[in-house]
Amino acid sequence: MNLTPILPRNPINPSFRLAAALLGTALLLGAASEDTSDKILRLEDLEITTPRKSALTQALTDSNLDARQPHSDITIQYISNNVAPTADYATIANIAPSVANVETNGPGLSEAKHTTLRGIDDGGYNVTFDGIPFGDYNSYSHHTTSYFPAKLIGRVNVDRGPGTASTIGLATFGGTMELYSKDPRTGMSFVPTLSFGSWNTQLYHLEGNTGLLSGLNAASAIASYQRMTTDGYRTNADMARDTYYVKYLQPVGRNTVVTFLSSVNKISFGNPGTVTQTQIDTFGRNFGLKDDNAANKLDLLNRRYNYQDKTADFEYIGLEARPGNGWKIENKVYTYSYDNKSHEKPKAGSGAAAGQMLGSLKGNEYRTYGDTLAFSREGDRGTFKAGLWYDATTNHRYTYGVNYDTTGADAIDLTATALYKAAAPGGNPATLAGAAGYDYKYLLVDKDTSFQPFAEYQWKVTNDFNLNAGVKYIKFSRDFNATVNQTSGRQALIATRSDSKVTPSLTAHYVIERDWSVYAQWAQGQMALSEGNSFYVDNANLGNINVKPQLSTNYQVGTVFKHDRFNAAADVYYVDFKNYAYSGPADASGDPIYYGVAKGAYYRGLEAEATYYLGSGVSAYGNGSINQAVFKGSKLAVPTVPDTTAALGLVFDHAGFFGSLTEKYVGKWKVYNTIANPDLPGAGASRAANSQSYWLGDLSIGYGQKIGNGQGFFRSFKARLQVSNIFDKKVQVLDGVDAVAANAYAKDVFNVLPVRNYFLTVSAEF
């Protein structure tokens, strides 16, 4: 069966036609209007930079004097000089306050297991790329290795709040991790990068820059190819990744820039899960999967039965124009896709299939089209901004049975021993022998549409005090067509659901002195309902679903101080989280009878970050947070919320030498065997435990030098050694507990963090 998304004959989405017209209009405006352009800040990854000799330039994370909510900016200097080049955005963001990241295979060498922001796990907050929200649509989670490795990223901003009305996305509920692409260099160059590290990790990155092209009005382009391979820290958790990237900037007239970007990522990897203490003691701390040999033919942890192949791409055409009189137009027309083939859940056959290995192939394929558009006008008394975000996705998802001995790794098993065959005639006809869904656990198409218009006004009350008030209308719709629904009964279902909400925001900002500001925020964020909470029940129970989108009301105050010798930021937050979705009691088939919403939870905490320049190219850095989240009804601690995070370090840059020594601390968090209804005493959990708190240290040291004042053929070089977990701490983070304490040794599961590891990276500029 061909499960490739079916596109219309004319692949240009109607929203693309509208956007193209807007782009054309704006181009004409930009070409004809006066020159009001500002100097463009380029996110260029330079091999050798001017020595950094202040707290402002050496800060590992930083905030801005115009901040309206708690946030941390992580610059390209940190990305290129302080983390391994194999890293992904979760590795980078881990340094920020209130962020915790669990990586079990090495920096960027497997998908992050938990990347939490104030304890809210992935899926509860936005991730954007150049302002465009992206991610899975069934649950809004992200795949940290699947789109943008560190060498493509020019900046990461961690916003701890829903933002203003113009902040778009399906999960503003928990904040936003903003990723920004690396720009072309202004000079023509060829930059090869080679990196070799622990576990036979090898990375080759080849980058070319056109420089500013005088014949094309100072247009510029960057193109790169990256190949990364690794055996990984965990046994048989190998990975191979190829990444292709191009970005083109075309000025039009004096104040309009058109951007084209494309990134394509192909990745394959072994996919081990969590491990028990029994497995750790028996096979070692780095146990993942077993070798594919005759002795392991019927072993469920054989590497042959547990791996993934993925392809992802991301493209946009963007326009920024300043037609004059204070106006600014920003538009991005985009598309991205994700195609994952995941081999998992192997099962030794019985009966007629005895001695054979059965398993599953899970597919998740989607293509998204969208448009972000914003108009703003800056006047003497303030700035008005309005726009909209439109986004449409077609998501094919399925899981079918395979027999590795008779049908291979990918072919659907249609034999009498098929894994998901109908137990007997009757029920859903599509699951009977010879029908489309015979050996499918589920087979569905989910078409999702998001529409978010917004408007806000920033009123300049005085030169030092301003207010920003805005409102956003959010509408999210699902058109669900399941030949086989993702339920134990494997019924067919055609259904729709649409939810809408108006979310307001109000922020105040006051400049106390030139280098000191304060802010206060009251704003609401929302997370759209997941596919599961919308449709995964027996058809007879659809009417019992009583769920609403999650809503967060955020109250935050903070301050930012920036001085050449010392800069700091601090905030206090309180978040009222409403509409926590939970599963009702199970029916005879094991499916929930209903999905409902509990009262929610209260999140509160304190966050701070600071850098102090000690002199001679050395700065001291530190950040920390105290975080608490409690369910309103049961008063239990919300799971995966670290009670504390912290980072301490030294940064130096002197006479061509640079580097940092940092320690990241993640406090304990609660783990429950289950959470049923958190409004009830005990929340349905029969056992709880705390994860391990831990410190992990990283060292980065390097040297760079210009050759011949950077003017010849060979212009510069840089060499860097990255050591992660430098003190070789043995850390295992509790991920799940069994209901019975006596089973802890054999059934509680952990994510084991890698031991000390090394990466040596050299690059040059020609």
Explain how this protein is built:
The chain has 766 residues and is mostly beta strands. The chain has one domain: Maltoporin, Chain A (Beta Barrel). It has 7 helices and 36 strands. The strands form 6 sheets. The protein has a 22-stranded antiparallel beta barrel. It has a 5-stranded mixed sheet with strand order 1-6-7-4-5. The longest helix has 19 residues, at 14-32. The radius of gyration is 26 Å and the shape is globular. The two termini are 50 Å apart.
CATH topology: Maltoporin, Chain A
Considering the protein shown, what is the CATH homologous superfamily?
TonB-dependent receptor, beta-barrel domain
CA-CA gap between termini: 50 Å
* Poorly predicted segments: 1-40
Largest sheet: 22 strands, antiparallel, barrel
The gross shape turns out to be globular
Question: Quick gist of this model?
Answer:
The chain is mainly β and 766 residues long. It has one domain: Maltoporin, Chain A.
Relevant terms:
disordered N terminus, Maltoporin, Chain A, 766 residues, 22-stranded antiparallel beta barrel, 7 helices, five-stranded mixed β-sheet
